[in-house]
Amino acid sequence: MNIIIIGSLLLSILQSILFWDKNLGISVMMFTIPTIIFLIYILEKNKKIQDKKAIIFSIPIILLSSTYFIFNNTFFRILNIFVIIILLIIMCIYLSKKKLKLPEFMYNILAIILGSLESIEEVLKFFKPRKKENEQKNDPNLRKLGKSILISAPIIIVVLLLLISADEIFANMFQGVFTFLENIVSVPNTFDLIIRIIFIAITFMIIAGFIINLIAKNTMYNQEEIEEDKQEYKSGINIENMTINTIFTILNIIYLIFSIIQFTNLFSTIGNDPNFDYANYARQGFFQLMFVSFINFIIIFIAKINKQEKTKNETKYTKYMSILTIIFTIIIIISAFYRMSLYEQEYGYTYLRLFVYFILITELIITIPVIAYILGKKIDLLKTIITITSTMYLILNFINIDNIIAKNNIDRYLEDPEENEIDIGYLITSTNTDAISQLTRLLNTNDQKVVESVKNYLYNEQRELEIEEMDFQELNLSKIEAKNALSNIDLRIEEEKNYEDFR
Q: Please, which residues bridge with residue 306 across strands?
């Protein structure tokens, strides 16, 4: 318990040093790595690790944390915070539990989140005086010393910082050490310091509660009642086989008709009818098709875990219908992909359109383990899907999506500026410093409106980057590269040039 308390306190102080009043940068990785190491150490020490292979989930977590150092994409900087937390929870579940079915997996996610909040009470109990006979077995002096340090350290730091800010002579006595501490802590006033300490305390309780919930007995995550729930899970879903097979049969007939239409109208006659707006046709169909493919995966999964007794013929029929549904699902995915490509060729790249491609490719890859699952191969389908999804999400993070959107839209525009319009407003408002190297290419175009818009944007970015002083916690390669790229370009507006010439 002492190790959990001390480690949680150190992590909460570290997060305050790295994140308080700072932009996210290399700090995310500096916090993520020690957090993972500490979690694995505590689980190993308490003999809670059931599957060491689950440590592999730490790789995508660390890689995602490194994106805050490498890139500067606003969308992913927000989304990745939640993804990192979710992956961390998934890693802990697979580390501490044996093979899980989907209902158990979902239950454990809720149990970790809610149980962590419930376990905060146990954290608070640690600081209350206890009078138990079994406590004599522990070293009372060590426990007292640990509590004394935990309680006195924040008070001492607060007092020293206040005295340093109040008296210059006193501050000079600690100039070397406390100059460094002040740069790290950077508290402008007493109120800010108090708020910061409150956040440290809240973070400490959440981290400690999370770990206690993982390892302690009879917590929401480890409660004995879960065994009763598992018996319910083993009973599975009971649906009449005729119902499932009827659904499969009707759906596959519908999909067959749909596939014939796709091959005869969309795939084979594309571009032959100049009066037909294929771009809008593609836009109208994509979301519906993606939703249909999700439904197919759910139905196949339900059919597989259905515990209703069935004959050999029923089993074979369900298997064949499931495989046929997967084949039609692949056709649907290809159709959706093709439709989106038509729309993208007409209107260019955006975040949504690129995300569409990745979702469809991910679905297509997932069909492989699903087919193996249908054929009865021993495969942890849930874990496989999580692995595939995490890998694809990592790729999406590391392809530099801002740069790709800007490059492809600019390439498309420069090929034929008169025919192909460019949504310069979207590029300026939606992309960040990751796309600056591509936007500089537009400075040499003949469209003065485009040149003026880009120049004003780059000029403002250049000024912001020159003014911004990054602390080590905020270090970001994208901003550094953008600053260097813009330093070699004359972006001064005409008024400034005329003023300098006049001088």
A: 237
